[in-house]
Design brief:
Helix content is 66%, strand content 0%. It is an all-alpha fold. The protein has one domain. Helix 2 runs antiparallel to helix 3. It is flat, with a radius of gyration of 18 Å.
Length: 131
């Protein structure tokens, strides 16, 4: 019936929505800082790029924008790593290579940016204990 291959996007999107809902439940149950919430939103939005069978460069914008915001709230070195990885993502998104080469490079760069922009776990200082 069809001469060209057909790609079903539904299963991947259902998986991304289920993971995003899981992230939302985690945020709702924990009292996370605003930076953590923004980073988790970046993670949820980046999940679409992981499971999407047909990538269009503008799918990358929401997640990468929030990664930049969270890394800017941290320190300059993490902002430098994040923006460098995301600049490479931007260039790579318009570069035409084989499907698996494109996917592996994009996922590696997105993981680097996510890890660089991830806020650390903030712990409360231990109360002074009398000796």
């Amino acid at each position: 019936m069809y001469d060209s291959p057909v790609v079903a996007a539904g299963p991947g999107r259902i998986l991304a929505v289920a993971l995003a809902v899981g992230i939302g439940v985690r945020v709702a149950r924990r009292r996370a800082s605003l930076v953590h919430v923004v980073w988790l939103a970046a993670l949820a939005l980046t999940l679409r790029c992981v499971v999407e069978p047909v990538m269009v460069p503008f799918y990358l914008l929401p997640g990468t924008l929030l990664m930049t915001v969270t890394s800017a709230a941290l320190d300059r070195s993490r902002l430098l790593v994040t923006t460098s990885a995301l600049a490479a993502v931007n260039v790579m998104s318009f570069w035409h290579t084989g499907e698996w080469t494109y996917y592996l490079i994009m996922m590696t760069l997105l993981v680097i940016a996510l890890l660089a922009s991830r806020p650390g776990v903030t712990t409360r200082p231990a109360p002074d204990t009398p000796r």
